[in-house]
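Mods, move this if it's the wrong board.
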Amino acid sequence: MSIQRVVPNIQTDRFDESRRFYKEFLGFEIAMDMGWIVTFASASNPTAQITLLAPSDSAIPHPQMSIEVADVDAVHAQAVARGLPIAYPLTDEPWGVRRFFVTDPNGVVINVMSHRK
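Not the wrong board. Structure tokens:
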């Protein structure tokens, strides 16, 4: 498996305050902002990233971590073959990623994803 990056996802009900903290205090730049999710990246090391997620009433769980892989389909097939708990099915999202959520043995929900070409 080829891992491209690992990003912690922080769910917060203090979204604006958190945005200011990571941008103004720590100096992260906004790499993606969809209103309910913001990803920050370091200007000097663009794979050093943090994502903020607004609370949601959705039945879809918020992942606590995102792992970008080279081939999400292969990783998904491996997860299914191992009988791992899939918390969100393999899906092409409108914002350009293909992803699924898997739950680790500690109950951590992980967003495994690839950018669509």
